Records
---
Amino acid sequence: MAKIEEITELLVNEINSFEKSIEQLEKVSDKLHAAKVSIDIIELRALLNSHQYEIKSVLDSQKKLYGRYENLIKDAKIYPNWAVIVFIVSLLFGVASVSYVLLT
């Protein structure tokens, strides 16, 4: 009988402590539900704006570099214009002289 009384007393103590713990958890839960959390995004906004400015500046520099390379490719030629003209003129003189020699 003494054992049963000890066990019931321990169970009652455990149940009481469990109920107290539940009450504390309910209080904490109510406080959490009542608390309003506001997020301060001012620093994040400033950081995003500076990052956006950096991205724009990098994009602008890449566009300028692309434009320069595009112009270089347009202007790039294997032979200069004067060399091509001299070659064509000399070729014409050669053909004319050969045809003159063959015809005479």
---
Amino acid sequence: MKSSADPSVIPAVTVVLEGRSICQRISLEKHGNYRSLAKALRQMFIDSGDIESCCSSSLDFDLSNALPGYLIAYQDMENDLLLVGDLNWKDFVKVAKRIRILPVKPTSRKGKTENI
């Protein structure tokens, strides 16, 4: 009896926008590179109105500007949280099990000042 699970078929991964209770799914196989993924994530969240856009829609999107104010990370098979783009595309597709979109918290430069 053959197993119905084909190891060459990569399942869709869950996309979690921090603060939202409903997740989306995306098939990484349908994208050939990070730029295509960035464009798809932008369409999924900005064009749907989940995230407000401050940028022109004519920009050439990549992972750094696809979702302004958010960082795109992923969980691998060991549940480690890593930055999307750290691996080459083919390795990323193999190990990513969840994409997490996290708000970037502004850093505060307030604090102690040095006396010279």
